[in-house]
Amino acid sequence: MANHSCDYNCAGVFDGMKLQLRTIKDVKEGEECTISYVDVINPAKERQAKLEEEYHFTCKCVKCVEEINASGPVDDGSGELELQDCAKVLQLCGPYLKPMDSSSSIPVNHYLLVRVRHRALIAYMDLQEWEKAAEIGQLITEHYR
Ligand SMILES: [Zn+2]
């Protein structure tokens, strides 16, 4: 078992049937090993809501505190889209399914951009367009790097 932190220092990795806890950054002697129970690319308010709903605690990690103190109107969730039709998803997402340069008005690691790409990935998989799904998968991987 490992406690949660949005600024986690470990990740669980399966080796066959064996679950290993591996550090993903330097851990000082005596420092608690933590994992994340939620997708940390989401804004702090969404992470906290999910943690409260599913795990019944309020995360007060450094990452949450810093994000909430710095949060502005971009975290209000107004960018949430209800998209169900694959073709519509891909039509709407088109401009965001390519690598973006630094001149873009959208920060390259904005969580809504990652969400759009996740939905496009699922849409391409539903359509069995595997090469396009793989391209989107590569873009998403860059966010997490
Ligand atoms: Zn947190």
Automatic annotation (TrEMBL):
<dbReference type="InterPro" id="IPR050869">
    <property type="entry name" value="H3K4_H4K5_MeTrfase"/>
</dbReference>
<dbReference type="InterPro" id="IPR011990">
    <property type="entry name" value="TPR-like_helical_dom_sf"/>
</dbReference>
<dbReference type="InterPro" id="IPR046341">
    <property type="entry name" value="SET_dom_sf"/>
</dbReference>
<protein>
    <recommendedName>
        <fullName>SET domain-containing protein</fullName>
    </recommendedName>
</protein>
<dbReference type="Pfam" id="PF00856">
    <property type="entry name" value="SET"/>
</dbReference>
<feature type="domain" description="SET">
    <location>
        <begin position="1"/>
        <end position="38"/>
    </location>
</feature>
<dbReference type="InterPro" id="IPR001214">
    <property type="entry name" value="SET_dom"/>
</dbReference>
